[in-house]
């Protein structure tokens, strides 16, 4: 018999890069994001018995990540942003962009989105999930995911330059 | 014609629209510059976000995170919990030969766990077996590694092979993909006992056929390839010659 904790632990190793990317999109700053990842790993291992081996581990883990992030937001106070917009510069990989100013503005705009919108953007546009998969992770109807994403996208679009 | 609302437009951009509606937008794009501009801007958001966050995938994993995922039966040693698990083990093995055995056991443990999880999921017998502390390819996996050529892909085969190359230690290694509902990808290297499976990871679903491009490999498989690759991967002629020589 394989202990479920060992199976989850083995499955988490290849997921780490994607989990860190998702956390960065949610939490913004690298240090906050890795704190979030650490919480997610601890929770996933503690709850390993709840994971059904025939279910995709990534969705299960991403749902834990989203809930842990929401818990963190609540702990810090509902109205407070996790970080001020200028700190969003830390998100951006400098030199990778043809239009660094646009990308910086985009990262800042993402950080300024309401949590309901940011989590949809993180799962669909950054992680690359389908609307249906994101709806499962968020436990929302697909229509809600779609309309939140459309509104978030328009807000983000405004921060791309005219040549974008 | 009716203006296309934002929900529909973004479903088109994200590939979520049904084929009939998508074809309608395709047709409209040709003679509607405003619509084309909206599509371009919606695509740009996605592309820019990926460009901003994808570099995180390439960052080394902080030690405090990878340390949490060390198998509980293995002592966590200073210096090993560094980088992503596979890359860290490989790098540690390069830097400190004495640690190779410990790192190898830890990697083997995670391969065995994944291999055992495959039971019942893969109809047709075990794909790996343990021998002298090594995880060796068995069954369908062993057969594919021995016989299949990436230059003659069989889209219906349940195991596909990707890159083949001679590793830094002189042994020939091949990447492979197990095609199933939940795909797995891995790296195996040939030795006296057969194909030793070094990494085995959940993989993204393939889009129709095997994509041998390195970008299709899970990060830890890629890291294992990078740690061993010396020179170029085999071309079709070298792959065939290697098979004829028994992968030695």
What does this structure look like?
The complex is a heterodimer of chains A (164) and B (248). By secondary structure, chain A is an all-alpha fold. In chain A, 67% of the residues lie in helices and 0% in strands. Chain A has seven helices and no strands. Chain B is built from ten helices and six strands; from the N terminus they run H-H-H-H-H-H-H-E-E-H-E-E-E-E-H-H. Chain B has helices at 6-13, 19-29, 33-53, 55-58, 63-66, 85-95, 100-117, 139-147, 219-228, 236-244, and strands at 128-131, 134-137, 159-166, 172-178, 184-191, 194-202. In chain B, the strands form two sheets. A four-stranded antiparallel beta sheet of chain B has the order 3-4-5-6, with helices on both faces. A two-stranded antiparallel sheet of chain B has the order 1-2. With 248 residues, chain B is of the alpha+beta class. In chain B, 42% of the residues lie in helices and 16% in strands. In chain B, helix 6 (85-95) runs antiparallel to helix 7 and helix 6 packs parallel to helix 9 (219-228). At the A-B interface, helix 1, helix 2, helix 4, helix 5 and helix 7 of A face helix 1, helix 3, helix 4, helix 5 and helix 7 of B. Chain B: This is Putative zinc-finger domain-containing protein. Chain B: It holds the Pfam family zf-HC2. Chain B: Keywords: Membrane, Transmembrane, Transmembrane helix.
User: How many distinct beta strands of chain A?
Assistant: 0
Radius of gyration of chain A: 16 Å
Uncertain runs of chain A: 79-98
Q: Please tell me how large the radius of gyration of chain B is.
A: 22 Å
Q: Alpha-carbon distance between the termini of chain A?
A: 54 Å
Strand order of the largest sheet of chain B: 3-4-5-6
Shape, principal axes of CA atoms of chain A: globular
**pLDDT averaged over residues of chain B:** 76
- Biggest beta sheet attributes of chain A: none
Number of helices of chain B: 10
**Portion of residues within helices of chain B:** 40-55%
Largest interface: A-B, 55 and 49 residues
């Amino acid at each position: 018999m394989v202990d479920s904790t060992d199976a989850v632990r083995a499955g988490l190793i290849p997921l780490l890069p994607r989990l860190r990317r998702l956390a960065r999109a949610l939490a913004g700053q690298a240090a906050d994001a890795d704190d979030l990842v650490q919480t997610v790993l601890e929770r996933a291992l503690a709850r390993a018995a709840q994971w059904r081996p025939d279910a995709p581990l990534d969705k299960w883990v991403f749902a834990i990540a989203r809930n842990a992030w929401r818990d963190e937001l609540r702990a810090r106070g509902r109205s407070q942003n996790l970080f001020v917009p200028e700190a969003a510069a830390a998100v951006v990989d400098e030199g990778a962009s043809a239009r660094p100013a646009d990308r910086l503005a985009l990262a800042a705009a993402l950080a300024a989105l309401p949590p309901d919108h940011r989590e949809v953007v993180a799962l669909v546009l950054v992680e690359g999930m389908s609307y249906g998969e994101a709806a499962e992770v968020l436990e929302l109807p697909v229509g809600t995911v779609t309309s939140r994403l459309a509104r978030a996208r328009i807000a983000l679009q405004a921060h791309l330059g005219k040549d974008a | 014609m009716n203006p296309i609302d934002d929900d529909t437009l973004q479903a088109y951009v994200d590939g979520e629209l049904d084929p009939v509606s998508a074809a309608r937008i395709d047709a409209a794009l040709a003679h509607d510059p405003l619509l084309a501009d909206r599509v371009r801007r919606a695509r740009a958001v996605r592309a820019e976000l990926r460009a901003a966050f994808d570099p995180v995938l390439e960052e080394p994993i902080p030690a405090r995170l990878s340390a949490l995922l060390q198998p509980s039966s293995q002592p966590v040693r200073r210096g090993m919990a560094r980088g992503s698990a596979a890359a860290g083990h490989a790098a540690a093995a390069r830097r400190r030969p004495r640690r190779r055995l410990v790192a190898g056991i830890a990697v083997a443990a995670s391969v065995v766990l994944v291999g055992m999880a495959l039971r019942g999921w893969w109809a047709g017998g075990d794909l790996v077996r343990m021998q002298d502390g090594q995880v060796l390819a068995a069954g369908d996996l062993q057969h594919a590694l021995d016989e299949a050529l990436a230059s003659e892909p069989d889209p219906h085969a349940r195991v596909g092979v990707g890159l083949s190359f001679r590793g830094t230690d002189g042994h020939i290694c091949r990447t492979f993909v197990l095609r199933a509902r939940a795909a797995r990808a891995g790296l195996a290297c040939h030795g006296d006992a057969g194909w030793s499976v070094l990494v085995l990871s959940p993989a993204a679903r393939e889009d129709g056929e095997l994509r041998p491009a390195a970008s299709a490999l899970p990060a830890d498989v890629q890291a294992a390839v990078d740690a061993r690759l010396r020179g170029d991967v085999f071309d079709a002629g070298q792959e065939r010659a290697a098979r004829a020589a028994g992968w030695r």
